[in-house]
Amino acid sequence: MSAVLEVKNLSFVYGKGTPFEKKAVDNLSLSVEKGEFIGVIGHTGSGKSTLVQMLNGLIKPSEGQVLLDGRDIWSEPKKIRQVRFRVGMVFQYPEYQLFEDTVYKDIAFGAANKGLTGAALDAAVRGAARFTGLRDDLLEKSPFDLSGGEKRRAAIAGVMAMEPEVLILDEPTAGLDPMGREILLSQIVNYHKERGNTILLVSHSMEDIARVADRILVMNHARLHAFDTTERVFAQGASLDAIGLRVPQVTRIMQLLRQRGVDVPESILTVDEALSVLSALLKKEGKIW
Ligand code: ADP
After folding, report:
1. % of the chain with per-residue pLDDT over 70
2. The whole model's pTM is what?
C-alpha cells in the first residue's frame, strides 16, 4: 500500500489578524492509503469541512502541506484545478448546484471540464449514473423534474463521472429518509468496491460510519482526536464519550454485555454482527437450535 494523500502539520485560520480570527484546523498530520474508505466524524464546528476543503485545494492551508501522490498540491498554484478533478468533492446538499437543462448534461459537466470527450465522456456519465442508481430514462429529463433523492444522486454522479482518484463526500445522506439513506450508502459502498478508489465520508451517523469505514478520523476542536481502525476507535468508547461522541448503539449494548461477563468481542459494529455473535452464543449454551 502507498499513501495517496498525506497531510503534514496542516493548519487553517479563518479571519487571520481580525477580531474574529478562528483556528479551524490545528497542526494536523496524517496519511491516507490508496483504496481506503475513511470515515470522518466530529461535532459541528470541529473542523471537518475545513480539512476536506484543504484536501482538494479549495482553500489554501495557512500552514503545512497537502501531498497528493507525494506532491505538494500547492507547488504549482496554477495547476490547482487539476487537483480538484483528482480529489472530487461532494458538498452538503449538492443538489442545489444542479443547473443544466438535462440530467445528462449536469452529470457530464465536470468530466467535460476535465477534458473527457466523445465515447469516454459518455461512458463516464452512464457509469456514474449506474453507480447512483439513476435510470437511463431520467438522463434526458430536467434536473428540476427529479425527486429530492434523485437530484442528490445526480449531483453525486457528476463528481463520480470525473473519475477522481479520491472521492470526498460531506454528509451525503443528510436530509434523506431512512430508506434513501440506506440505498445511497450501499451505492457508495458498491462504487468503492468496483472502482477501488479512496473515499472520505464525513458523517454524523456513527451507525453509517461503523458499517463502511476501514479507518475513522475523529476531529475535536480543530485537532485530530484519533485516527485508527473502526474497530479500535469504537472499542475505546470512553475516549469518544469524553468528547461527547457516542459509539453506535449496538456497539454500546455489546460492550455493556461484555462488562457483565458475557463472552462477546470488544468491538461489534453492526446489528448483523451482533445477531450472529449472540445467536452462536445462545446455540452454544443450548438455548436455541
Ligand atoms: P465542521 O465541518 O466540523 O462543522 P468547519 O470546518 O465548518 O467544521 O468549522 C470549523 C470552525 O471554523 C468553526 O468554528 C466554524 O465556525 C469556523 N468557520 C467555518 N467556516 C468559516 C468561515 N467561512 N469564516 C469564519 N469561520 C468559519
Report:
1. 99
2. 0.92
